Structure formats: C-alpha cells, structure tokens
Amino acid sequence: MKFLKKFGLALLIATSMGTFSGAALAEVDEGRIAYGPEQAIDLVKAKIKIAEEGIAAKKSGEEVSGMILEALHASKEINANDKVDNARMKANTILKSAKKHAKEGNLTEASTELATATTKFEDLRYLITHGTW
Predict the structure, then answer these.
(1) Residue 27 phi/psi, 5° resolution?
(2) Is the distance from CB of 93 to CB of 105 less than 8 angstroms?
(3) pLDDT tens per residue, range 50-95
(4) What are phi and psi of 3, to 5 degrees?
(5) Cβ neighbours of residue 41 under 8 Å, at least 6 residues apart?
(6) Nearest by Cα to 112 from 86, 87, 91, 94
C-alpha cells in the first residue's frame, strides 16, 4: 500500500510536469487585431495627435474628450512587462486628467497634458527596447 501511494504520487507529479499551459497555445480571436507593444505605442500617439488637432480646430470639449478616450482605450494594447505596464498606467493618469480638463472646457490645460502624455508614451518605447530607464 505504501508503495502504491508513492507510485501514485510520482505518477501524478510526472503527468502534471509533462503537460503544458493552455496559455502557451493561446491565439488571437478572429476579428481582433493584435498589436505589438511598439505598434500600440504608435497607435496611441496617433490618437493623441488627433485629439491635439481637434483642440487646434476649436472642437468642443466633449468631442475632444471622446478623442482622448479613444487614446485611453488604445493604450490597453501596450503590454510587454510589469515595468512597462506601471509606466503606461502613469501615462494614462495624465491622459485621464487631460480628458477631465477637456470635458470641463479647459482645452489649453488639456493640450499641455496631451503633449506630456505623448512624451511619456514615447518613453515607453525606450523602456521596451532597453528594459530600464
């Protein structure tokens, strides 16, 4: 009986180590576009530029805040590692502040914050390629 317990436990450990994670087989769903981290950074910067152009074109605060919201949604595609994710969240905080100011109608403050957010997202590219600041 003692031998069977040891044999059963060894067999259980061997089979669990021999299997692999389902995440290793994960694929992108049909109809969904997967971006690499650097492509996602370019996408976010393009969305921020559209919002800046909206401010320059004297669009309403609601329209500009919608444009900034699109940039926030696009930033979710940036995923490389924990350091990059922490820096992305800090850049998102600036975008959220810009969105709030745009909604309130303070477009000059929103424009300044969008410029700051653009540089923060560009810093992410360096973090991805070099791994540290």
Answers:
(1) -130, 165
(2) no
(3) 999 999 998 999 999 999 999 999 999 888 788 889 999 999 999 9
(4) -65, -40
(5) 78, 121, 122, 124, 125, 128
(6) 94
